[in-house]
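Quick one from the shared queue. A colleague (R.T.) flagged Heterokaryon incompatibility domain-containing protein as missing a structural entry in our internal table.

Convert sequence to structure tokens.
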Amino acid sequence: MTHPYPLLDMSHHEYKPLPQRHIRLLRLQDDTQSEAKPALIDVLLDSAPPYETVSYVWGEQIKTCVFHFSSGRSVLITPTLNTTMSQLRPLCGTGHLWIDQLCIDQSSVSDRNQQVAMMGDIYSKSQGVLVWLGTPHLDFKNVSDLFQQGSFSEPRQQSSQTPSTSNGESSRIRLAFADYHDYRSLALDLLTLPWFDRAWVVQEAVLPAKVTFALGSFTFPIENLWRFISTFGIRQSTGYLVLNEIMRLRSKRFRPEKSNGKEAICFYHTLSILTPRCKTSIPHDIIFAFLGLQDSSKVQILPDYNMDWNKVPELVTKSIIKASNSLDLLGVLHRRGDDTTRWFDLPSWVPDWSRRLEAEPMVFPRSWMYFNSASSRIHKGTSAHGIQSTHLVATGKIVNEVMHKIAFTQDVGKYGASRRYWNVCSTLNLLHQYNQMALLWSKARRQPSEDRLLKTLLADGSFTLSQALRTQCSDGLSTSYITELLETYHLLERFSKKQWRHMPSTKTDVGRRAAQLCDHARVAWGRRLIVSSDWRLGLVHESACEGDVICIIHGSKVPLVLRRLQSGHYRLIGQCYFESAMRGEEVTWGEDDADEFILE
């Protein structure tokens, strides 16, 4: 089928342009173990025969191997694909494979544009995907143990007193404590395999109904892999984060009953999670590789490999805003400055998708939160005369401005600063915030209470990872709940870092509230407290300055902070929680009476 080096006299296969909605498939001979050459056929995607897709890492970009078709023609392929085909061909149960390197004319930009635009459908309509992880360079004994009786087993930690497993459970490993750490190391090694940090693999593993991994001669479904990996609590591994997002999206796609149609998952948030952590060989693919995950028919983002790739983030942002008539995407605007960027000099309203999030969004599409600062008015995408493509036109009104800002005492800009119980107190530091406000408030004006301060710092409960808590806080933090959180905060203040081993578990009321407080406090990462000109409190991005204006902008569920520029235009600073402005209280103008803001 293939040779390790190009043949000088080979007859090169010439790809022909495909009609709309057509794809190419590799048709295998019945005897998949033989060296019989497969045929490359073109079919209408919507009536294609059953086929499987292949997911692998390209590896070396230099094509040094020859692949022969039944027509007598040949193409050059990478050594990785050469190995992948020899290993996965016997696993194909449909007799047809779709493989990007063979089924797309890689030398034709127009063919790549056409086929990449259909990639979501190609994977969705397949019978399944075969994933080649490579040969096991890991601890082979441990790998072999995990495949007892051909089953990828789920290790469980146990003490030496735990009874041994019965014969009926011989295919499942029960680990002693020492073994547990060995297998945890193996799990980490698995997650460092190149497949787990490539951008294309996400949609390849999310969209097909069945995902089968191959590691050398071992095969296992993605569900078994996830059970094994999730045993060890290695959430900070890049491979874990990618696999976790794959499983989350698969659950939403194939088990929608679990979210009851309410889970706030959106395409741009998926981009925010994955693009900073994934690699591509072609710059455009850091966005194009995820287009198959976009399921809104209104969003029209067509891949174009001729486009200046520095324009891709702007294209994606404008397309999503236009299709949704919403500016909620601006919640993922702020990115970590210590990350390396793929793009420079982006407009202030365009997220740098290549960097990790610095601040959590205050609201998502289909969010539980009551926030409705623009009173349900949508973004209509008006276009000012002579506006540049790098500008975004928004409408609304200035309702206030930042008069004072109060910085957190430490680590506010550090993503994850309040992840631990002992950090949430040193980060929020209510006493410091309260004392700083005391210096601002005159004797004639009553200083805000601690309850009011905490409610602002937590943005009225806008962020939580708990679905049950989102429902509970959908109308904001109740007075009784804020009192509980405040009492918990003061309890946590009494503990030093060394004392946290004695902290009650999350199964107790105190431990549960402590975990909830830390969860809610994530919205304060990268933000700071501000006081407006009429003495209201707000929570804004840490880059906000005195004199920045607080605006109600049509299409945004929360107020936005803008900065006036000498040009008369504005720079977007970010989303804002602002007292007495989150339910549309400030909207007193007619929709056609709104002012226009040009964002640079």
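DSSP finds 18 helices and 20 strands in the chain.
The two ends are 55 Å apart (CA to CA).
Added to the table.
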